[in-house]
Amino acid sequence: MWGSWCAPCRAEAPHMQKVHADLKDRGVAFLGINTRDGLKEAARGFEETFSITYPSLWDPDGRELLKFKGTLPPSAIPTTLVIDRQGRVAARGLKALTEAELRSLIDPVLKEG
Fold this sequence. Notes:
Blueprint lengths: L6 H17 L8 E4 L4 H10 L6 E4 L3 H4 L13 E4 L5 E5 L5 H14 L1
Parallel strand pairs: 1-2
Antiparallel strand pairs: 3-4
């Protein structure tokens, strides 16, 4: 979950893109949920600025976030969930993650499968 207005999201974005690019051939998929950006142009601008190539859902009113009720705190932005191959939440990051921190959440799931 991210927003173009979120300074920690901006700090994290290059790390997310790098790990996505490095791991996509190993079956790791990324999906962003852009929240609280009232204009799609703000979200697109963020993605262009940071050369984000993984897909994101534009969710200005939080409807997509409601699907994660009980798993994803709506006020914790950025938030990263790692979902395992069985569709379970395997790990969660409730802050801007460095590349190493993101890999540390994903690596155990890759080893399982």
